[in-house]
Amino acid sequence: MKKAIRKVLVINSGSSSLKYQLFDMVKGERIAKGLVERIGCGGPKDHTAALDQVVKDLGDAAKDVDAIGHRVLHGAEVFKDSVKVTKDVMAKCRKLVKFGPLHMPANLGGIEACEKIFKGVPNVAVFDTAFHQTMPDCAAMYAIDPKYYRKMGIRKYGFHGTSHKFITQEAAKFLKKPVSKVNLVTCHMGNGSSLAAVKNGQCVDTSMGLTPLAGMVMGTRCGDIDAAAVLSIMEAEKLTPAEMDTLLNKKSGLAALAGSSDCRDICAMAEKGDKKAELALEMLAYRTAFYIGGYNTVIGGADAIVMTGGIGENSSEVRERIVRRLGALGIKLDRKANKVRGQVAVISTRDSKIPVVIIPTNEELAIAQDTVKILGK
Ligand code: AMP
């Protein structure tokens, strides 16, 4: 008989940091969480050294780990679901490094470190792109010569899939509908943001693209932009592709518009009458409402609009600015209910045509749940 999976370690291994959480899946409780920083730049020399630090920090709790779940950025079209890590899986993942040259080596480094330190403990890779693999071609393809898709895999993949899937499942429970019958627009709004159109529990469109740069106005990313504007700036400023990448991913979005990438700062500035902050918030709200309207059409009418992430769960101000723009869908905000922070709640009125529901996301728990599911198969 298979040993029950009780203790699951979840690893989110980035280029210079490693975040972890340890769960008791029988009790459904988190046992520990932590962060090792400055990997390769003053702290531990590599991911194996960082994981040694995690084992030290966990002490006795590091004993009897039954399974390890890893967040992996990109599964491209190869991985449509989470998967138990084998040599073959690692070889396939290494071929996908081109899709995430910054994150993928760190993600795979975390898995290799676990294989060394937690000998014999199974690892599961959970891909940020997997939930979006059900998108039809009409949503996923770009209108350029298809040879770039064939040769280079250029298409829309989408990210935050673990979060969109988790809140889809939680929203279905909340709405008392089977997941396979639920239609939603899910809005993950944090420092990085993306929306997904979910029809019958499956993703049919999402706002991020080949990379996480597309779609919403984000903390430091520009989101949607005319590609010709990018070329004009590169030419005028004589920027290399790497420099342009930094400009679009790290020096744009709220940071460029209002001088801070943090939504709390911007709300405070707008409250004091700062015009730049006001415009930044309106741009954020406008684009979110624009996508909600489009996705509501795509799925043939939503059972609910679901909001999550640091901004979605906490910012009454941003939520109000978004919902104010959704009157044409018959959506009405309950301003008192909208004061809620960080908990499951309906923030629309009883007579709102579509409910707006806050559902806190928990990507680490979702990874732990998937790990148990995959190893139990
Ligand atoms: P995340 O990436 O999901 O951790 O979300 C980070 C974002 O959530 C930042 O822009 C924060 O400013 C924002 N955030 C967190 N709490 C609040 C709050 N109470 N009001 C407004 N924004 C918030």
Question: Could you name the key traits of this structure?
Answer:
binds adenosine monophosphate; 377 residues; Nucleotidyltransferase, domain 5; 14 helices; alpha/beta; globular; six-stranded mixed beta sheet
CATH topology of the largest domain: Nucleotidyltransferase, domain 5
Number of separate helices: 14
How many separate structural domains? 2
Please tell me what the overall shape is: globular
Order of helices and strands: EEEHEEHHEHHHEEEHHHHHEHHEEH
Distance between the termini: 13 Å
Radius of gyration: 21 Å
Low-confidence stretches: none
Task: Give the SSE layout.
Elements: E1 7-13, E2 18-24, E3 29-36, H1 47-58, E4 67-72, E5 83-84, H2 87-94, H3 103-117, E6 123-127, H4 137-140, H5 147-152, H6 161-175, E7 184-189, E8 193-199, E9 202-206, H7 227-237, H8 241-250, H9 253-258, H10 263-271, H11 275-298, E10 304-308, H12 309-314, H13 316-323, E11 345-346, E12 356-358, H14 363-376
Parallel strand pairs: 1-4, 4-6, 7-10, 10-12
Antiparallel strand pairs: 1-2, 2-3, 5-6, 7-8, 8-9, 11-12
Adenosine monophosphate binds next to helix 10 and helix 12.
Report on the structure:
With 377 residues, this protein is α/β, with parallel strands linked by helices. It folds into two domains: 7-127, 2-Layer Sandwich (Nucleotidyltransferase, domain 5), CATH 3.30.420; 177-363, Nucleotidyltransferase, domain 5, CATH 3.30.420. The protein is built from 14 helices and twelve strands. The protein has helices at 47-58, 87-94, 103-117, 137-140, 147-152, 161-175, 227-237, 241-250, 253-258, 263-271, 275-298, 309-314, 316-323, 363-376; strands at 7-13, 18-24, 29-36, 67-72, 83-84, 123-127, 184-189, 193-199, 202-206, 304-308, 345-346, 356-358. A hairpin with a 4-residue loop joins β1 and β2 (18-24). α10 (263-271) crosses α11 and α11 packs across α13 (316-323). The relative contact order is 0.12. The site of adenosine monophosphate (AMP) has 12 residues, from α10 and α12.
